[in-house]
Specification:
Blueprint (H helix, E strand, L loop, with lengths): L1 H30 L8 H8 L1 H8 L1 H18 L3 H10 L2 H8 L4 H26 L3 H8 L3 H33 L1
Helix pairs in contact: 1-2, 1-3, 1-4, 2-5, 3-4, 4-5, 5-7, 7-9
């Protein structure tokens, strides 16, 4: 009987992981249909990792993220959106490990992780993938405008962090 119970548990785990991967890929695909959803789509797709993270742990959340990122890179029309998810979709799985740090250190680390991930992503987009539209867009920005974009991006990322925390708490209450 124990093996049957273990089989059912593993089946549930795989089914939930598959459904959340598919949901993430669908959210990312629809995000490429709406022009302003380049950043909102990946952030919503990150919410799909919360049930996996809560029920099965960070290992399975990272696997779902990786599968959804690969699907997004293959299927999404908006490659900037897919790359944004590929470079930041891992964050919900790492987030609980940052919780024990003192608040100022935690905030600085989160901002540094976001800024580094975005810098590497946009350097790859401009120089390796040579996406002309993105390169032209950044060429027209002044240094002040780029600094403002970094500040706004970090602010949005910290708001995403608050959303992830609140949605995690809501999910944990719902599961009880």
């Amino acid at each position: 009987m124990a093996s049957h119970s273990n089989f059912r548990r593993q089946s549930r785990k795989m089914a939930l992981c598959g459904m959340m991967t598919a949901l993430s890929a669908a959210v990312l695909s629809t995000g490429s249909l709406i022009p302003f959803a380049t950043f909102a789509g990946p952030m919503l797709a990150m919410l799909c990792l919360l049930p996996i993270l809560h029920d099965w742990g960070a290992k399975y959340a990272r696997m779902v993220y990786a599968a959804a990122a690969v699907l997004a890179l293959m299927l999404c029309a908006d490659k900037e959106l897919a790359l944004f998810y590929a470079f930041l979709g891992w964050y919900p799985a790492v987030r609980p490990r940052l919780a024990p740090l003192p608040r100022p250190v935690r905030i600085l680390l989160k901002c540094a992780m976001f800024t580094l991930a975005m810098a590497v992503m946009y350097l790859l987009i401009i120089f390796l993938f040579q996406m002309e539209a993105v390169a032209e867009e950044f060429a027209g920005y002044s240094t002040l405008m780029l600094a403002l974009l970094v500040v706004l991006g970090n602010t949005s990322f910290l708001l995403l962090d608050v959303l992830l925390l609140r949605m995690s708490v809501l999910y944990a209450r719902w599961r009880k």
